[in-house]
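Notebook p. 47: complex prediction with zinc ion.
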Amino acid sequence: MIFKNRLGFEDFLALAVCCLGLTTGGPAARAAAPPEGKSQAPPPAARDRSKLLEGIGAPLQVFLIPEAAGADFSDANCYVVCDRPSGEALIIDAGSRSAPFALRRAADMGLRVVLLVATHFHLDHTGGAPLVLSRTSAKMVAPVKEAGLLAGEVGTPAEKKQVLSVPVPRIDVKAKGSDELKLGAHAVKVIEVPGHSPGGICLHFPAEKVVFTGDVLFKGSIGRTGIPHAAKSADAMVAAVRSKLLVLPDDTAVLPGHGPPTTIGAEKASNPWLQAPAKAEKKAEKGEKKKR
Ligand SMILES: [Zn+2]
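Predicted complex, structure tokens below:
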């Protein structure tokens, strides 16, 4: 499923970041910085890759933009959350390929991008940050633990060496669990779930019943562990998903960093990684191939 013919080197690199935990810069990162004087407008045939997720997050409007050309599980998901009354937009996980389309979506709706959130520092979720920050006055929001790694404030020398090369020009807000952001009049709660990455964050809109889970929770799966900077096993992350995400109302929409939307209720009922131990063991074997 991963190595389809149409995948190019950048796709492979982005996949490697999530699947192998690489955090170095590369062609995808360099592509994010626009050559001086060149327009960032996407070619006419690919004018709008954003898709409105009908009925999710109302009265906000949520658009999904896959990082690469398709929309399968290998594409990281970028989201644009739009609040028309305040004229504000929030971009979540801008990849190098999705960022131009996210900016266009906000511009087409006449909205100011006020926040750019990276749920975690894997390149397929951050490669477009330089572009967004250079074109807007958005504040860059990042997990506090990973911001510390980027700044070289915490972590082992080996961790610093790898994480420091992620091309994010600045971090304005270091977000930790229980912090609250605002999009217009809408409250956005930060939920910290480390495991797949050192300090990954999810964004929860309680009133609108939607949670953006980054690479922590997917439809039928969870984020990969056992990779560099990740936890060795999934145990602690599964426990955190149970105690921090599965406690949300069942009808809360889950918008993950890869793959299709789901709901808290659906994952509670059928995600093989989140079942009671006896049942989980059997189902998890089946789910192993899907785990990212
Ligand atoms: Zn990831």
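Notes: The chain is about 30% helix and 20% strand. The longest strand covers residues 77-83.
Next step: compare against the earlier run before touching the bench.
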